Amino acid sequence: MLTREDFAKYPFTREAAEYVKALDLNVDELASPEYIRIVERAEQRVSEALLYGAIRTVDNPEKETEMLSFPVAVLFVAVIGDNFLTRRYTLSEAKKAYEILKNEDNAKLVEIASTTFGWKAKTESGKFLLGLTDYLRNSTGFHDEEWKLVNKIVVRGEVLLRREEFARLLQEEIRRRAENTVDNSPKAALNAQLVHVVERINQILAKRREEIRVEELPRSAVSAAYPPCVKRLYDSLLAGQHISHMGRFTLTSFLLSVGVKAEDLVKLYTSTSDFDEKLTRYQIEHIAGEKGSRTKYTPPNCGTLKTHGLCMGADDLCERARHPLSYYRRKLRLIGRIAVDRNE
User: Is 16 exposed, middle or buried, given 0-12, 13-18 or 19+ CB atoms closer than 10 A?
Assistant: First the structure.
């Protein structure tokens, strides 16, 4: 059985949620001095996720504070209702859990996986065996070759995994669970004290969103001229959302074609949950024609993007373009004409 110390480390677990529910706390109670440390820690969790993309693990934490600050942080994120914040916060919580889980006792890892997420899992001789369905559900978003099923040992419908791999798959399940928790949380009415907390988070959100766009936006490209499909892929990437293989290829090849350096693109992909710098760098350099066949690739045409469900938010200019780069060139000329008109 999980202990209260475990609840503090893993507040997303079913047992921790049941423990919190049994306390029967309501939002108005959070304004009392008794809960100030919980509210402060909840604000800290969300703020650190925004500022650093990671939530630090507190040394010798107060178990009750650490455990209860999680649902309060979820409350703040749900009330704000911003997609970028939700994705960044839930990914940060999942990463925090992974750092603890990968050093956890084998039996406890299996218990969390089985009890909280219903995995068919067991541990034998220091290795883990995970049901094929659970493995595929959580590994489909990973692009590293090592996660492909053909590169795994499968025994009677169970995939053999190392501890770090098992914990990494749990991270993905935790991220998805946290997202669902935020999405399904009601937007409760807050008292004045908690409204001030939300306002502070909103200020960090607005500032950090702009900082990220400035930091990650390639200097040599004009983002205002991106076609809607590329703009959507770009925003999804910054928000830490999963992008299909074709989506990644489209975004990468487009940005390289408009003058973005491979190094800038590597930095852009650091927000993804499965980021592997060595693999990402190789893939980008391959598309740029600097590795492999030495062929520089261009983005798919609009017809191909429609086939793959990537033609999103088409505007009037899209009707006169058959390729994302054609759209980009047309939009650049349009932006230039508008600038000239304004200066006359």
Answer: buried
